[in-house]
């Protein structure tokens, strides 16, 4: 199997489903244990970003897809509604953002994944891990 999918409701964010999704990726794709932390953290952060930027009244699920190729694993986190501003994420250290939703999640993703990109006008985060 080269593809694993998960669909979760936008509110609340189900952390245990994300953990099980990560476990399924690791076991199905036979990923070395050393990648567990970065995979799990990156998937959780990207899912949180999708949840934060989704329409709060929306019942559309957040869709997670993991695809394995020879050299990498690609994780796609897609929301149907809402957009993240990939050009100007919020600055985490400004006084207005202290204690609130910030762009710190984006910076965390940059440090966890080997590649970070966006598609569909910011409605989808794409994380790549070279294995």
Overall description:
This protein is α+β, with helices and mostly antiparallel strands and 131 residues long. It has a single domain (3-130), classed as Heat Shock Protein 90, CATH 3.30.565. Helix content is 31%, strand content 25%. The protein has three helices and five strands. A five-stranded antiparallel β-sheet has the order 1-2-3-5-4, covered by helices on one side. A hairpin with a 3-residue loop joins strand 2 and strand 3. Helix 1 crosses helix 2. The radius of gyration is 14 Å and the shape is globular. The model has no long low-confidence stretch (mean pLDDT 79).
Helix content: 25-40%
Q: Which shape, going by the Cα principal axes?
A: globular
Overall residue-averaged pLDDT value: 79
Helix and strand succession?
EHHEEHEE
Gap between N and C termini: 17 Å
SS-based class: alpha+beta
In the CATH hierarchy, the third-tier topology is known as: Heat Shock Protein 90
Question: What is the CATH class?
Answer: Alpha Beta
What's the domain count? 1
CATH superfamily, called what? Histidine kinase-like ATPase, C-terminal domain
Report the C-alpha radius of gyration, rounded.
14 Å
Please describe the biggest sheet, giving its number of strands, its sense, and whether it closes into a barrel: 5 strands, antiparallel
> What percent strand?
25-35%
